[in-house]
Give the backbone structure.
Amino acid sequence: MPDQRKPRRTKVGRVASNKMNKTIVVAVEMVTRHRLYGRTLRRTRNFKAHDADNRCEVGDTVIIAESHPISKDKHWVVQQILRRGTGEPVEIAEVEA
């Protein structure tokens, strides 16, 4: 039983800022319906994620995974860069968690 862990939650988002060292801000967009009116709403939420090698640039699409608390606000790590901000796909580049 100790070997079985719950899979980590992951989110896909776009890098909004990389001005901090080893930290990026990822904007995750969620599309929901308004409960009463049924209108489609776009909600954006920002998450701070750990980028150990400072490889992410603004505009990149990344997968972030939940992790132990790294700092006061940082509880996510960059798992994979899906697409560069220029639109070119990235070769499989995974970060060891």
User: Anything to note?
Assistant: The two ends are 22 Å apart (CA to CA). DSSP finds no helices and five strands in the chain. The CA atoms of residues 15 and 26 lie 4 Å apart. Residues 10-83 form a domain with the OB fold (Dihydrolipoamide Acetyltransferase, E2P) fold (CATH 2.40.50.140).
